[in-house]
Amino acid sequence: MYSEKVMDHFMNPRNMGEIENASGVGEVGNPVCGDIMKVFLDIEDGIIKDVKFKTFGCGSAIATSSMSTEMIKGKTIKEAMAVTNKAVAEALDGLPPVKMHCSVLAEQAIKAALLDYSEKEGIEIDGLEEFDFTEPEH
Ligand code: FES
Questions:
Q1: Nearest CA to 56 among 33, 35, 29, 39?
Q2: How far is the CA of 133 from the centre of ligand 1 (A)?
């Protein structure tokens, strides 16, 4: 039912933890199940130098948290903005349809951390204002 990549990222999650004095922190909850994810970003010169996460959630939420943080590490803010939950699910060789909502948590938490960063820095990030933090896709 779960791909090997999902199992691997669930059993050995990458980038778990937190960053002190992070450039941006985002915390979101999934209204479908009540699970929570927190993302810490360390951003320098527009590049995501480091990223860590804490997820209180199911295996799919942990696997997508792990994979999505791998996908944005070392990338520009613009590249990180382009990482959608669907792209993360694809990188994991798919999630069962009933677990797709879990992958939304990771995308939202990353965007929430970018929003926190943009507010602290007084900058605008393209596409962030239009982003809908409320409605998870199923
Ligand atoms: Fe809550 Fe997966 S069941 S995030």
A1: 35
A2: 16
